[in-house]
Amino acid sequence: MAEEGELTISAEYSVTKDMAVIKISDTGKGISGRDLRKIFHLFYTTRRNGTGLGLPVAVSIIENHAGGIEVDTKAGVGTTFVITLPVKQTIVKEISSI
Asked: What is the pTM of this model?
């Protein structure tokens, strides 16, 4: 995204899926179809000094937590990544004093 673009991050809870839904959107130029097919591949980058590790590592972490990631991009409008992660309920037992 260019310097003059806008970045928005939001999070919500999906009751029907029992998932946290995190959206990261920008108002950049979008991702070309050619690049879109490769953005999750190891070492693929469009940046001069990039390593191509950011998105593949992010995907690995998300999937290791039983989540998923999707991307929606429109030329001249921007890109949105949607990350879903399961919400695990933890039961905390009270310890009663003797």
From this structure: 0.81
